[in-house]
Write the structure tokens for this entry.
Amino acid sequence: MKYFPDVSEVKFEGVETKNKFAFRHYDPDKEILGKSMKEHLRFSLAFWHTITEDGSDPFGVGTYQRNWNGENPIETAKNRVDAFFELLTKLKIEYFCFHDVDIAPQGNSLQEFFDNLDLITDYIKEKMERDNIKLLWNTQNMFSHPRYLNGASTTTNAEVYAYAAAQVKKTIDLSKKLGGQNIVFWGGREGYESLLNTDMSFELDNMARLFKMAVAYADEIDHKVQFLVEPKPKEPMTHQYDYDAATTMAFLQKYNLQNDFKLNLEGNHATLAGHTFEHELKVARTYDALGSIDANHAEKMVGWDTDEFPTNVYDTTFAMYELLENGGIEPGGINFDAKVRRTSFEQNDLLLAHIAGMDTFARGLKAAAKIKEEKFMQEIIDDRYADFNTTLGKNILADNETLETLSKYALQNNEPQLKSGNIEYYKSILNDYLV
């Protein structure tokens, strides 16, 4: 059965096309800065929002019209895989991501869940080999089930902790089976409601213990995979331990995990933390920890994780600039952790939304490449910090000065002469790169 029969293949047709099922900017083989667009962008399709989402929100039931529901949970799971891989091939996306509960029914026991995962991943593996599709990353959902009401690695219940460990082990096994390039830890409930009844040190120690177990097990089975932590503030806990990039890096450094984990950063999560996406990417780069990104956009007029498809060229330009400055993102990628709007309920809207997101990132890549080639931002930064190229500045950077020598210099010289940052002018010139 074909789930998207109206489209045989989404092709690049340029900005003049009137075909809504065509790329206007994403030309997979177009070379930019020595690599093709598809190599720079490494797009990935997310199983959860794409296939299992139903369009419900906090104020209403689902609206999506989908035709892959079968007569039993296993048939539905296989139909979903068929529809998913049809989307992947028609969009020319070479990578995908999933949570364990996305792809297989949980059944009535942990063993039944694992058996179902084995069955469906056998089916997925056949599709991967047929279509030359690769697993960017997988993860374990340890936040939806009631057993995780107090978290998973930060739970107050040792048996729940053991259950979580079993899910993590299975995730690593499935990653090796499918040739996964990354594994993500996302702490949907790893935080607290109130400090009145919380031992924060105890919970952080236990979270680090589970991370270390995961690293040890991957080494034991000789699975060379990049581990990632995905920061997220708020939703649902009062405070989550992986609040933002800086908080997460502090955690990793405290427990000496910074060499084993990098960050998977999401645009919408950055907004919820009170940051811009480029800020979070820059923080990760500063710590040499930029691993992968989830591409989405937050509707700032709404107060929750809306996970909209990215359509803002300003945001994608700055994101791609950070990725270019990082020297690329491999083995990570750009995963569309995004869902169509509740009003976009037709099945073909899944194609249209991904086309929009891919085109927006392609535009961001082109603009960022030009900014990098012309050294627009670098020259602004070099000029702003030029005073550290003077004799005094060079001595400071070489650690040849002390408080005494700098104090003596300041006392012997006049008030420092400052220079305008001209930020309004530079922002105006930046617009020329975005058009």
The CA atoms of residues 124 and 130 lie 10 Å apart. The radius of gyration is 24 Å.
